[in-house]
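QA checklist item 7 of 12: single-chain prediction sanity check.
[x] sequence parsed
[x] length recorded as 242
[x] structure emitted
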Amino acid sequence: MEKTVYIDERFRGPPRSGNGGYVTGLVARLAGGHRAVYLRAPAPLDVPLRFESSSDSARLTHDGKVIAEAVKSDSSALPEVPAPPSLEQARAAGRHAACSHPTCYCCGDKVAPTEGLHVHTGQVSELPPGFVAGVWKVDAAAIGGDGCLQAEHIWSAIDCPGSYAWLAKDGINGGLTAMMQAEVLESPRVGDECIILAWPLDQLSDRRRTSGVALFDRDGRLLARAIQLWVRPNRLEGPTPQ
């Protein structure tokens, strides 16, 4: 399958490129099936991108440069999910959230209410260091279009928390999303308040870390889970999640 896709400017992570969760979720949805999606380069905004897929792989390119690649995987790669905090605990944790990209579609705190997901996660006081949580209220206006909650919006919502988990654990954010694989068991509905929990998994090197993230309904029922690989570029000096 081949098609042309666009990433709207408001679905950004860093100021001039797509949010990592949005890009990986978009590629995973278009590719179909369980996919681990690797980001090879920043995804440019508001330009035509080429999506190509076969039975084994899929990729997103721009002017011949590979932006993202998806490979088949299965749920065995996904982390075991801890028990979630309560909605009240998650809401309290989110009040102490840091924000490194003010205009990010997921975690930005300077984004208009109808143009961002406003997922703000902070350390849960009752849990070990690095376990961060927050509340995502699913807003049709923020999703855009016909208000349909496609996979890329869910992947976006659970993207940045994985980086903030490392900030809460050791003061160093993961950096930029390098890989994400998610399993959506059930899509939340517009108007729902959902609990998001993220936690650090492994530090693979000074620059490479993995995180687990999960999405629950307000009663603690699991809706989605993901594993992420974060990479800190050499030039990165401060905490800057995607």
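[x] summary fact logged: Residues 9 and 150 are 17 Å apart (CA to CA).
[ ] second reviewer sign-off
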